[in-house]
Amino acid sequence: MYRLVTAFFLVVAATFSASAQGLTVPSYWLNQRGSEMKLYDLKADGTFKGVFINHAAGFQCQGTPYDLWGRAIGNHVKFVVIWKNWTADCKSKTVWRGWAAGKTIATRWVLTGYGFNPLRGTDIFQQQP
Ligand code: BTN
């Protein structure tokens, strides 16, 4: 009986947190620069993982997947990519912060790294079917 009750509460907690995060996973997103983002592994505490493939003109580290880590609390979403993988090390990092609403995540980002002043911008991600 104890196990049954525990299992019930775990299922309820997991269901609540998944719907409370404003994100569905696994999910596939494109931003207005043509970059791709795949999200998966959303935990009950709102943390999630993913991969980001940068296709934005004027930036480095293009065309290969980079690990992404994030957290969603309510509809607020924050995620980070360190631009280092097996093909390239751009010695930089981007942090996006924004809001998830349905099939849109609207963000502001900061790109920091070695040898240049921080760059800031906005990205709008649309969930793809
Ligand atoms: C670098 O050039 O140092 C690494 C790649 C940075 C790509 C940035 S992150 C914010 C913006 N949105 C994108 O989709 N790509 C650029």
Commentary on this structure:
There is one protein chain. The protein is mainly beta and 129 residues long. The chain has one helix spanning 2-20; strands at 27-31, 36-40, 47-53, 65-73, 76-84, 89-101, 104-113, 116-127. Helices cover 15% and strands 54% of the residues. The chain has an eight-stranded antiparallel beta barrel with strand order 1-2-3-4-5-6-7-8. Strand 7 (104-113) and strand 8 form a beta hairpin. The longest helix is centred in the first third of the chain and has 19 residues, at 2-20. Mean pLDDT is 88; it is low at 5-20. The structure holds biotin. Residues 31, 33, 35, 54, 56, 59-61, 83, 90, 92, 94, 109, 111, 113, 121, 123 line the site of biotin (BTN).
Short description:
This protein is mainly beta and 129 residues long. It has one helix at 2-20, and strands spanning 27-31, 36-40, 47-53, 65-73, 76-84, 89-101, 104-113, 116-127.
Hetero groups in this structure are:
biotin
The biggest sheet amounts to: 8 strands, antiparallel, barrel
Distance between the termini: 41 Å
Q: Provide the helix percentage.
A: 10-25%
- The neighbouring-strand order within the major sheet is 1-2-3-4-5-6-7-8
As a whole number of angstroms, the C-alpha radius of gyration is 16 Å
Number of strands: 8
* Overall pLDDT level: 88
Low-confidence stretches: 5-20
Question: N-to-C SSE series?
Answer: HEEEEEEEE
